[in-house]
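Quick start: what a row looks like.
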Amino acid sequence: MSAQHPGRTLLVVSSAAFLASLDLFIVNIAFPAIRADFPGSDLAQMSWVLNGYTVVFAAFLAVAGRLADRFGHKRVFLVGLAVFTLASAACAAAPSVALLVAARAVQALGASMLTPTSLSLLLAAYPAERRAHAVGIWASIGAVAAALGPPLGGLLVEASWHWVFLVNLPVAGAALVAGVRVLDESAHLRTGMPDLVGAIGLVVGVGALAWALVRAPDTGWADPQVTLGLVAAVAGIGFVVIRSRRHPEPALDLAVLRHGPAALASTAMLVFTAGFAALLVVNVLFLTGTWGYPAPLAGLALAPGPLVVVVVARFSGRLQDRFGIGPLAAAGGLVFAAGTAWWALRAGAEPDYLGVLLPGQLGTGLAVGLILPALSSAVGTYLTPAQWGSGSSLINTARQIGSVLGIAAVVTIVGTASTGAVGDLPLLRHGWVFLVVTGLATAMLGAGLAVARRPVSQPQPVPDPR
């Protein structure tokens, strides 16, 4: 059916991709309401509502893609959508922070199955001459979700934070029913079983590192549990690296890291997304705590940045053709550092949206629109076609791990007891300084990419925003 009506396939897979992206952005604005509903919870516990999702999402992206190759993209897509829908309901019904985090992890497992399969199903539904346009629409969904996340979350929180998760149910349910009828199954590839043990090891390693980072401010770095967390992190990540070098279908394909520019791009993606994820946490605390904005107003206040991303991303291809990936990443890193430095230097206890927050929002939005598309396209620029799949998985895993580490780092910096109140403003300034550092580090890595040797010209792959 999709071969005759590819537009229906586009609608189904774009709806699912929208939900998977929306849940990365909509939950931030609900933090104060969720925290108020669970007395005794601190910022360290709340950080796992985000990190529980992101760690699992990062670890299982590559595994889900290989499962789809083995068992069929339609089948894995529908299973992922069903898991995501049921887990969203479980999030809304969670009676404690611990169960909410567990439900978010299951939700991320479903989302990890949606992201790689949705693009494959879309490509199969469209003829070659129409694929670029269709993929452009699909790829823009993430930016739209980022723009709508804060204001939509703010409006929903006015009714109850539970609606931040319940809003997924009608859209996901309709997409699931339509997907059964509309989507065509792809041909199965004879691939081996993906490395599930390696994926679990990645969850343990990255999760233990994030846990140690958020616990250390309260107990000290010499605390035995913090030490145990750091040891578990080293052991888990080391196990994944060793296992991935030997497994035929590894959780992380590390071969592409031998290529210098690809390694630089992956590192830049990890560093920048650490800053980007931390930005959302710090600014929500600032708006709802220091300035006392209610959730709907805070959501609207955060919307201009993502809206700038939507506009800039439309021109990213032409900018890359003219200036190159490295210069764009370097320029974006400097703009991000300037925007966050503006907040660190100018933000005070008295609300001044137009003079303080908005200029930084516009600058950081410009930076995100320059950096993320450029670094994502590094796969097609610096790697051979045979490496596109593994390169895409690795750079997008770096993106998710960066988000986890950024949130953990900013919780460490501002303190687990912080609510963003006026008295916490010096701590929030330290958080913005951390963002400045990530921007400058991204600029340095972008400069390295600018002087990296580019291989012979080759056709570009379809962008994969996983």
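That is the whole record. Residues 32 and 288 are 8 Å apart (CA to CA). The longest helix spans residues 128-159.
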